Amino acid sequence: MTSNSHLTRRGFMGASVALTALLASGSGLLAEGGKALTIAYNLPVQSWDPTTGPSAVNPALQSIFLAVFDRYIAQGPDLSFGPGLLTEWGFSEDKTKITMTVREGVKWHNGDDFTPEDIVWSLERAGNPETGNPMQFVWGKIGNYVIDGNVITADVLAFEPALFKWMAFLTAFVLPKKYYEEVGAEGFEKAPVGTGPYMVDAFEQGAYVRLKAFPDYWGDAPAFETVTVKFVTDAASRVAEVESGNSDITTNIPYEEYDRLIAKDGLSGEAVPVTDIGMIFLNDIDVMLDKNVRLAAHHAINKQLIIDRLLRGYGVPISTLEVPGYAAYDDSIQVEYDPEKAKDLLAASGYSTDNPVKFTIQTTRGFKPKDYEMIQAVVGMWRKVGIEAEIEVYEIAKHYELRAADTLAPAAFYNWGNSIGDPSTSTGFSMFGPSPHAVWDSADLVEKIGPLFVEPDEDKRIAGYKAVSKYIAEEGYVIPLLQYVMPVVFASNVTVTPYTSGDLLPQAVGQA
Amino acid sequence: MLLKTVLIRLITTAVTLFGVAVVVFTLVRVAPGNPIAMMLPPGATEADIENLKALYGFDKSLPQQFVIWLGGVLQGDFGTSITLRQPVDQLVLGRLPATLELSLMALLIAVALGGIAAVIGARKRGSGTEVGVDLVSGAVLSIPDFLWGLVFVLIFGVLWPVLSISGRVDPRLDIDFTTNFYVFEGLLRGRFDVVGSTLAHMLMPAMSLALPLAAMIAQLLKQNLKEVLVQDYTTLARVRGFGETAVILREALRNAALPTLTLVGVQFTFLIGGTVIVERLFAYEGLGNMAIDAVINRDLPLIQGIVLLFAALFIVINLIVDLSYTLLNPRLRHG
């Protein structure tokens, strides 16, 4: 027997110390102080082309895109619009042309000069159906671009009143013409180049992106030299990330955890209402064709109670699809909680608690905070007035499929985001029958909303949408529930500027 | 004999993979939810929808789509991910090392913990220690891996934050490796910072996966050891003066380990499957995490690629287990 064939006690101790040292060398991952910031984010970046594919229309990914790329038009924390890569913009008097003034002195991350050609190329590419831009239906409405110095003019091929608001919305990012044509789509995915405040320094798909401040950024320099965005999809893990100090900031965590964390030393929080609402789509089928049933279903819901009990007060009850801050918000339109009125309405149609009206309501479970629980509460409130609803749980992908095919149940819970606050992108598309996103398809609404999509007079357009919102509330075509509040928890040594759009921008994080 | 076995297994492997391809291709298309509906813009017209379908190849009939896809697969083209916009084979093979390293580490931990517990239980058979081993392994087995994950996050991530909660490696490290085998390539390149960071990130998910398997190994191996320890040859070893521990380690373990090897082989495939939830919990960028995103986003080409790879992995692992069982068992080797 030789001694080297056995693990001696001394050898074992030595190996243990070595392993411990090895692990310890890799475990010192507490969020760095100074000029580095770590964010535990709830969704991974899927693609670095912010203009094509499903990730381009995912509102939750816009924050990361906005750190690297710039939009044609920028948006402030309060939804206001301001200069981005365009400094001026507007329609001609007769709405047949647009004029855009391009910012000068801007550099791409690879050192190239940003030019008006980049703007034109980006817009033409966005308007080309073959590139796969999901918002091609907007960008295809302008064309025949002419560049004169740093001013671009173009023809309006089809009038879109919200065109310039769209320039601050989904897929409205400017990409580098020369670089993209050199490296192609695949090369761009591997080494994306933008004009934004941060450059992509390292990217591990599904794990993290490390951003470095762009020294030649045209705007204010960001407070942090390096930002690491970890993609932590599990909410419990995000809570642990910020609680342990591994990350400085996290978001989209349960409200219970938000309250618990901000009560701790060293952590602070911001919870502001964002442009994301919870609603119940009603389909124009079966019992929902009865106006009394629709209105009773709305009046029977105590939205504030749901917010208080299930969301710990984090939410704003709403009566229309327009919320405070939106261009067509009208606080005079209210659908009050009134269970007695609900009973009367149902009685008028022959229903009561003994003879309830029956239908199915579909909902996701865990897709939005307390979605299933909210619908359970709603069903409980309905039961008290004479509505017996059966809950059907489905995945969000099935919701999209059923909605596009117009085969949703009579009632279906959903959330709707509208970070530019324009009525066309909330009430408009969600209630206009021909839109694949609409559920209620009655002709009266098509007649009322259709002309507003092309109304050139802005005041008349906004007034028109307010009137439509009032009409929808009176007819009970949809049940808006609440405006969501987005919780952000952060270390007390940083400051976070919350955006009503729901964006969590690394460049909007400062040092306390 | 061995060559014939391998050849037959290779043929059945090809047939199995074809069957898996047919099933997964059909299932993901008949399952509710389609990727086109998920990316429809609000103002999309029927023409826009048809354009999108054509862009992603969903405008053709199901058999046509299958023939096109299978033709590509046979030429090594698994299609392009709808959400990640990169070739599926590159994406899947890029993530495979992370999952393999995690699974292997979990397996090593499970074998080590289970083996030690089994030896201790067998050595102290009939005593309170054996009862203790049975109780602990029973309790460990009754808790699923993801719950172990949450327990570890709480203990080693929050209360005593010594291990990394999420990810696979410290994002601050610059890694320009040829492969994504961070541990193996890190060791070969002498990048111990990468190895240490990867192990520190891997420890909690690996432990979560390993514990239930370790409990199974402990129970089975201990039982087999107890059966072997009453055989004549172990008695003879004691007569020759070997202590009980030496009898277990030098004489009994090799024979008692054969059924455990089969269990480990079978369970290893389940362990790889179990990475799906655990990787999600720890934001570990392996195949499992990618699979969940692919399903949520209805990224059909990516789902197909991942399932095919998982199927191929399962078949290969089972083949290796069968062959190693043949090699280790003299009765099968010479039969």
UniProtKB/TrEMBL annotation, chain A:
Compartment annotation: Periplasm
Domain Solute-binding protein family: 82-427
Keyword hit for tRNA processing: no
Keywords: Signal
InterPro entries per UniProt: Peptide/Ni-bd (IPR030678), SBP_5 (IPR039424), SBP_5_dom (IPR000914), TAT_signal (IPR006311)
Entry superkingdom: Bacteria
GO MF entries: peptide transmembrane transporter activity
Family matches, as Pfam families: SBP_bac_5
Biological processes annotated in GO: peptide transport
Main location: periplasm
Gene Ontology CC terms: ATP-binding cassette (ABC) transporter complex; outer membrane-bounded periplasmic space
Similarity comment text for this entry: Belongs to the bacterial solute-binding protein 5 family.
Protein name, UniProt field: Peptide ABC transporter substrate-binding protein
Organism encoding this protein: Thalassovita mangrovi
Lineage of source species: Bacteria, Pseudomonadati, Pseudomonadota, Alphaproteobacteria, Rhodobacterales
TrEMBL record, chain B:
Membrane-protein topology: Multi-pass membrane protein
Species name: Thalassovita mangrovi
Residue ranges of domain ABC transmembrane type-1 in the record: 96-321
Name of the protein this chain belongs to: ABC transporter permease subunit
One Gene Ontology molecular-function label: dipeptide transmembrane transporter activity
Annotated GO CC locations: plasma membrane
Coiled-coil ranges from the UniProt annotation: none
Alphabetical keyword list: Cell membrane, Membrane, Transmembrane, Transmembrane helix, Transport
Family as reported in the entry's similarity comment: Belongs to the binding-protein-dependent transport system permease family.
InterPro entries tied to this protein: BPD_transp_1_N, MetI-like, MetI-like_sf
Entries under SUPFAM superfamilies matching the protein: MetI-like (SSF161098)
CDD domains: TM_PBP2
Main location: membrane
Compartment(s): Cell membrane
Membrane-spanning intervals of the chain: 7-31, 102-123, 135-163, 199-221, 260-282, 302-328
Pfam families: BPD_transp_1, BPD_transp_1_N
